[in-house]
Amino acid sequence: MSNENETVKLNLSRLVTVVAVLAGFVGLFGAFVILPHRVDAAEKRLESLESRQQSNGEVLSRIDERTQQILSRISALEQQKRTASNL
Known about the structure:
The protein has one helix at residues 2-86. By secondary structure, it is mostly helical.
């Protein structure tokens, strides 16, 4: 009976070892095959976001320039109005 128990323990130990080795291979596969693809996808997304941010910055810069022009024009019109009302 003890021989049978030892055989069962040995077989169970081998099974656990095989499962652990398979899990290790799956982990290595993920690290060297799947992970680089995910990193590439993330880098592309970051590049897209950076491009969009740069574009938004340019638009905001143009809006700011136009706002400054409008404020300058309003100021000039107010000055003209004050000058005309003083006459």
